[in-house]
């Protein structure tokens, strides 16, 4: 398993997404931006859902519908299941930009995707 929150980990996410089938009618780009606490190095990637497929690309996406930004410690805690995204948001540790309504409008379809990235965590 690749170390979480690294380029190798994003590549593992991309590999896990290959072959995943997305429900028809959903077109959404969700971007994650993880920054070091000192504002230094950043890891950005986008999950693209559309045309019945799921893909992950490294780097910032100019066409992101919604962007989640957090520091590395917060991202690691969320990924490990130690902190919920909701609690991080309410504590000001997770920022949301763009059109959150686009993601919420597709909540049922996103849930239907299942755990596309399970193999990247195994």
Explain this structure to me?
The protein has 122 residues and is an alpha+beta fold. It has one domain: Nonspecific Lipid-transfer Protein, Chain A, CATH 3.30.1050.10. It has 6 helices and 5 strands. It has a 5-stranded mixed β-sheet with strand order 3-2-1-4-5. The radius of gyration is 14 Å and the shape is globular.
What attributes characterize this protein structure?
122 residues, five-stranded mixed β-sheet, alpha+beta, 5 strands, single chain
Quick structural overview:
This protein has 122 residues and is of the alpha+beta class. It has 6 helices and 5 strands; from the N terminus they run H-E-E-E-E-H-H-E-H-H-H.
CATH superfamily: SCP2 sterol-binding domain
CATH topology: Nonspecific Lipid-transfer Protein, Chain A
Output the helix-strand order. Answer: HEEEEHHEHHH
Give the second-level CATH assignment, the architecture.
Answer: 2-Layer Sandwich
Strand order of the largest sheet: 3-2-1-4-5
| Gross morphology | globular
> Over the alpha carbons, how many angstroms does the gyration radius reach?
14 Å
How many DSSP H or I helices? 6
Query: What is the average per-residue confidence, as pLDDT, rounded to a whole number?
Result: 90
């Amino acid at each position: 398993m690749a170390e979480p929150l690294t380029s190798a980990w994003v590549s593992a996410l991309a590999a896990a997404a290959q072959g995943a089938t997305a429900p028809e009618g959903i077109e959404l780009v969700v971007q994650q931006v993880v920054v070091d606490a000192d504002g230094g190095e950043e890891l950005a990637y986008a999950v693209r859902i559309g045309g019945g497929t799921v893909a992950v690309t490294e780097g910032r996406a100019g066409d992101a519908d919604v962007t989640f930004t957090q520091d590395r410690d917060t991202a690691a805690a969320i990924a490990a299941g130690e902190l919920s995204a909701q609690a991080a948001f309410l504590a000001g540790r997770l920022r949301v930009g763009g059109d959150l309504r686009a993601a919420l409008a597709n909540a049922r379809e996103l849930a239907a995707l299942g755990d596309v990235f399970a193999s990247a965590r195994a």
